[in-house]
Amino acid sequence: MTKKVLLVDDEPKLLRAISRHLKRKFDLVMAESGAEALEVLKTEGPFAVIVSDMNMPQMSGVELLERFFELSPDTVRLMLTGNADQTTAIEAINQGRIFRFFNKPVAPEVLEQGITEALRQYELITAEKTLLETTLAGSVKVLVDVLSIADPIAFGKAAKVQGWAEDIAKGLRLPNPWEIKISAMLAGLGRVAVPESVIKKLNASHPLTDGEKEMVQKIPAVGKDLIVNIPRLNNVAQNVYYQDKGFDGSGFPEDGRAGMDIPVGARLLRILKDLAAITDDNLPTRDNIAQLDRWAERYDPELKKKVQSYFEFRIRKLDDAPRVELTKMKVAHLLSGYTVHSNIETVDGLLVLASGAKLTAPQVQRLHNLTKVYEFQEPVLVDITTRESEI
């Protein structure tokens, strides 16, 4: 965790004076203007604390701290000013989200105490953020592991969609690509509430009764209800809820939403899920990509074009790349991180895991347990390099 403190003032003598008193207590970096401070943030950041003068030419202290709030929101902001005007103080606190406000001249021991308190505040902010992120990651991992065991076929499709969604979201610079990645992984979570007999019929594309169709239609709603109470996953819950909603307003839920009112993550999931359903391998064929045009009314037209362009690029890149050497292997020897390139089936034809899945530790444990009960069609084809890339 950083303990660096950035001092910003257009008076070099004042900076040197402050540095003499505080350099033994804090890791200090100095800047003589707002522009220089922003450049220093790029090259030497992040900073735990910034102390800025209020009245500087070109960029005021309020403007600087407002920019810092946008670029480095965890940095605790302190302000120095020779202007004791109440309006100035209120403006600084409201716009720059100031933690402490000091009038110049400020006694070194007073400033030292203020920086010390700001560092404690920074530790609280970052500790809470770390705890939240750790809890979030753990919660998501548990849900993903549950899905990988409860419905490995759906999990395999979700893993395929997740890889595509993450790449596309980053390439298109969509906001919060991590939310779209998690949405793709948890899109099928609601399937845990559907009876196993119905899931088997669904995976085998067998006809469903009206009651079973209603259950399947509500999978996104169940998934949303499971996700929505996890901190920071409200947008993910909305993406999961609207994953089957068409751009034209068709599909679940029947709430009148259409077009750009549907979350962008859900609009992307709708395209990628439909594409995954007709794709046998890890990458769609050109015919698969073209088939999206037949269902164009379901999709955001601009997003559909970008998705098609992305896969055209991936196919061209694959055509030029050396072929990956696949390894033949017994099911009992599979390890987490391997990507399977053939269906894993029992000798009786029971599909246990579809081709294209990247194996998780719980999946591997389940497969190893199943080898003690069932006889499998072996060997299976795997790409072992995907495990090596994780190590």
Automatic annotation (TrEMBL):
Pfam family, one: HD_5
Domain of life: Bacteria
Keyword Protein transport part of the UniProt annotation: no
One GO BP: phosphorelay signal transduction system
The keyword Nucleotide-binding appears for this protein: no
Coiled-coil intervals: none
Span of domain Response regulatory: 4-119
Keyword annotations from UniProtKB, A to Z: Phosphoprotein
SMART domains per record: REC
Residue positions where 4-aspartylphosphate is found in the record: 53
Protein name (record): Response regulator receiver modulated metal-depenent phosphohydrolase
Natural source organism: Terasakiella brassicae
